[in-house]
Design a protein that fits this description.
Blueprint lengths: L2 H4 L3 E2 L8 E8 L8 E8 L8 E11 L1 H7 L4 H8 L13 E2 L3 E9 L11 E5 L11 E5 L3 E3 L6 H4 L3 H14 L11 E5 L4 H12 L3 E6 L4 H6 L4 E4 L5 H6 L6 E4 L5 H5 L10 E4 L4 H8 L1 H23 L2 E4 L6 H12 L7 E6 L3 H9 L6 E5 L2
Parallel strand pairs: 10-11, 10-13, 11-12, 13-14, 14-15, 16-17
Antiparallel strand pairs: 1-2, 2-3, 2-5, 4-6, 4-8, 4-17, 6-7, 7-9
Helix pairs in contact: 5-6, 10-11
The protein binds NADPH dihydro-nicotinamide-adenine-dinucleotide phosphate (NDP).
NADPH dihydro-nicotinamide-adenine-dinucleotide phosphate (NDP) binds next to helix 2, helix 5, helix 6 and strand 11.
Length: 376
């Protein structure tokens, strides 16, 4: 039954390379949309450790990180993570394949893979230091992968893993929330209309939290439809003033960053363990501009200083939320999707031939959920 899959991999025509090849969108240098290049001769990933498996990609989705990485964001840190001992051939990370979400079918498994077999339909968030999903195949470790929800298509499924893994990391590890502890919690989500926001609203409502969202006026219907209890239009008047009139919050998930943290800390319940988690952190941009060591130290000092200031002045926790791969959490999300408690929010779909157009869509901003690329 996998014959149709396997025969799509072919041997590269280049006489110097006899490895399997595949179609992919690659970047050979960082820059604007023009650096995206389609090739049928990208090196197909293979299972190289016993815990890895290879997935034939049916759908991928785009995240703001893909736009940033196309321009070189995080290049130094991600290069170190890819090749910590500098053992890989050559000095270059190129060609890089972008795309952080995958929904597809397992085609090959390492000897120690126990939860998956060829033919399984799976979904996953591809870590940014690995080759991405804008390709026919992607190889991941078993821990990063989860069985796909049965009741949604690959296109819909691909809209969820990366934002779900990020929301988990931020809300559970950073915000101390979980299914059992959320029912009496008041949570504020800034930027609720984007990928992370539309997922987080639904997750928190499934866990029983009270959810307030900031977004543009024309996204109010979307976020209320996903379950938001209160909505503040940040385009009409002073958003901080509007939020100050409300009861204070236990947790704030900040998808916007910048000046937000200057007014958001005052919206948290003081001296009661409340937490502010921002997804907009300077960690990778610091390492890009200052180098790995100075950039990491600088980011660490910034984080510690803010954390200490806020805990001393008002007893609130200041934290950074960072994406972390987590297949077992995606198992939990699968149940919520299959029970209809979390709906995929796909704003736009593009065929594999139109990846540059999908990036252009993302570049326009104003996301209302996710942009998905149909690969197979
Ligand atoms: P999206 O681009 O999908 O969504 C952003 C949303 O915010 C849009 O709907 C936009 O709509 C809205 N928005 C813009 N400005 C404001 C504002 N001032 N107040 C309220 N809403 C606003 O991004 P994601 O949801 O995927 O990600 C959110 C942020 O988190 C991004 O900056 C991303 O880079 C970051 N991120 C960080 C991760 C990490 O590991 N630290 C991982 C994942 C994401 P409109 O402009 O029309 O209002």
């Amino acid at each position: 039954s996998l014959a149709g899959v396997c025969c799509r991999r072919h041997v590269c025509s280049s006489p110097s390379s006899r490895q399997s090849c595949m179609s992919a969108w690659v970047v050979d240098q960082y820059g604007s949309n023009g650096v995206l290049r389609f090739t049928e001769e990208a090196t197909a990933p293979t299972v190289r450790s016993p815990t890895e498996l290879t997935i034939q990609v049916h759908a991928a989705s785009l995240n703001p990180l893909d736009l940033a990485m196309r321009g070189g964001y995080g290049a130094k840190m991600l290069k170190l993570r890819r090749d910590p001992m500098s053992v890989m051939d050559g000095d270059s990370e190129f060609p890089v394949i972008l795309g952080r979400d995958v929904s597809g079918v397992v085609v090959d498994c390492g000897a120690e893979v126990t939860h998956f077999a060829p033919g399984d339909e799976v979904w996953a968030a591809v870590p940014p230091w690995k080759q991405g999903s804008l390709a026919e195949f992607v190889t991941l470790t078993e821990y990063e992968v989860s069985l796909k929800p049965e009741l949604v298509s690959h296109t819909e499924a691909a809209s969820i893993p990366y934002v779900a893994s990020t929301a988990l990391s931020a809300l559970v590890s950073g915000g101390g929330l979980c299914r059992e502890s959320s029912s009496n919690k008041r949570v504020l989500i800034t930027g609720g209309s984007g990928g992370v926001g539309t997922f987080s609203i639904q997750l928190l409502k499934a866990w029983g939290a009270h959810v307030t969202v900031t977004c543009s006026q024309n996204a109010e219907g979307l976020v209320r439809g996903l379950g938001a209890d209160e909505v503040v239009d940040y385009t009409s008047g002073d958003v901080a003033e509007q939020l100050e009139m409300m009861e204070k919050f236990d947790v704030i998930l900040d998808n916007i960053g910048g000046e937000t943290e200057q007014w958001a800390m005052g919206l948290l319940k003081p001296w009661s363990g409340s937490k502010y988690i921002t997804l907009v952190t300077p960690l990778l941009s610091n390492t890009d501009s200052l180098g790995l060591l100075d950039g990491t130290v600088n980011a660490g000092i910034t984080l510690c200083t803010k954390a200490v200031q806020n805990i001393i002045s008002s007893g609130v926790f200041y934290r950074w939320g960072l994406y972390a791969p987590d297949g077992p959490f995606l198992d939990e999300v699968r149940k919520l999707v299959d029970s209809g408690k979390i709906l995929p929010v796909v704003e736009a779909q593009f065929p594999f031939s139109q990846v540059p157009q999908a990036f252009q869509k993302l570049e326009l901003g104003h996301a209302r959920g996710k942009t998905v690329v149909r690969v197979a």
